[in-house]
């Protein structure tokens, strides 16, 4: 049986020159470091980029985190292995934005400095929304399919009914075969990979988060142009209750395609020009 202390969240996406301060990036719910590859390649070539990958993703025998605060604490331990002291550069996509935000709060409390905090299409924490969170197995599968359909030209033709009469292992096998058919998975992809994705995503979807304090600094919030603008404006308004300074930007694409070329380079270049 795999032990918890065997788990290391750090994944090197881009080594860079290792002379500058690295970016530490947290993928979205159920996502791997690979989801941020094109984002990492959009940064200057000399910049090292690391991802922090969820427990239970690569090894489904490990239980996923169920608390943003604990996840952030564990990630900080891993971050300090690479960079013992600040200033730090942090980025998170979707659910990963909550984790990045909490990492920043905890590092500030530990006397460190944060140079960059970038949140990509991250919903604002909403304590009221926590009360209604109840994602079962099929709800999780449907959310995952919705994510996959954002990046597929030909959407997966799957509905709730396809899974309702199946056991969990049958559900996994059925979705696995459909993902191979779509080209998202190859025949060499292990079904345990999908098992890890599903269990982590379900844990993330059911995780509530309320920041314990205000963030006294600048936060960059990048939203996708193809998402509902009324919802986006609501998230911006709520984020303003948690931060001192909020810089907002719209990026081409949807929640997932905004992470791919050429969309991702558009907002990374824009952020970099602001820094310059």
From TrEMBL:
Residues 24-268 form the Thioesterase TesA-like domain. Keywords: Hydrolase. Transmembrane segments: none annotated. GO terms for biological process: lipid biosynthetic process. It comes from the Bacteria. InterPro entries: AB_hydrolase_fold, TEII, TesA-like, Thioesterase. The keyword Hydrolase applies. One of its GO terms (molecular function) is hydrolase activity. Belongs to the thioesterase family. This is Amino acid adenylation. It comes from Xenorhabdus budapestensis.
């Amino acid at each position: 049986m795999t032990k918890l202390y065997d788990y290391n969240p750090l994944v090197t996406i881009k080594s860079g020159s290792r002379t500058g301060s690295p970016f530490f990036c947290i993928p979205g719910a159920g996502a791997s470091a690979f989801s941020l590859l094109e984002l990492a390649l959009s940064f200057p070539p000399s910049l090292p980029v690391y991802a922090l990958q969820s427990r239970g993703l690569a090894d489904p025998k490990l239980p996923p985190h169920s608390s943003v605060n604990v996840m952030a604490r564990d990630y900080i331990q891993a971050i300090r292995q690479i960079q013992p002291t600040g200033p730090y550069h942090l980025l998170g996509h979707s659910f990963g934005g909550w984790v990045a935000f909490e990492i920043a709060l905890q590092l500030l409390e530990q006397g460190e400095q944060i140079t960059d905090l970038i949140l990509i299409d991250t919903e604002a924490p909403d304590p009221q929304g926590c009360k209604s969170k109840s994602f079962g197995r099929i709800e999780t599968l449907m959310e995952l399919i919705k994510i996959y359909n954002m990046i597929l030209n030909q959407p997966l033709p799957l509905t709730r009914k396809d899974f309702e009469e199946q056991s969990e292992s049958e559900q996994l096998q059925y979705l696995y075969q459909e993902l191979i058919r779509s080209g998202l998975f190859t025949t060499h992809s292990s079904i345990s990979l999908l098992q890890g994705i599903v269990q982590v995503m379900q844990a993330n979807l059911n995780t509530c988060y309320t920041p314990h304090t205000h963030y006294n600094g600048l936060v960059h919030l990048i939203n996708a142009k193809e998402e509902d603008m009324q919802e986006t404006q609501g998230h911006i308004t709520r984020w303003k209750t948690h931060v001192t300074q909020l810089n907002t930007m719209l990026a081409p694409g949807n929640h997932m395609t905004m992470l791919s070329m050429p969309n991702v380079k558009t907002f990374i270049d824009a952020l970099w020009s602001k820094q310059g």
